[in-house]
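Sample entry follows:

:::
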Amino acid sequence: LGTKEIAVRAWDEALSTQPEKLIWNLM
């Protein structure tokens, strides 16, 4: 697995659990 694949996988899991919190943390 490449770093990008892991990031996308973690991103999808985070979005499915708490999308708003993740988006605010990135901003």
Remarks:
- Residues 5 and 11 are 10 Å apart (CA to CA).
- The mean pLDDT is 77.
- Helices lie at 3-17, 19-26.
- DSSP finds two helices and no strands in the chain.
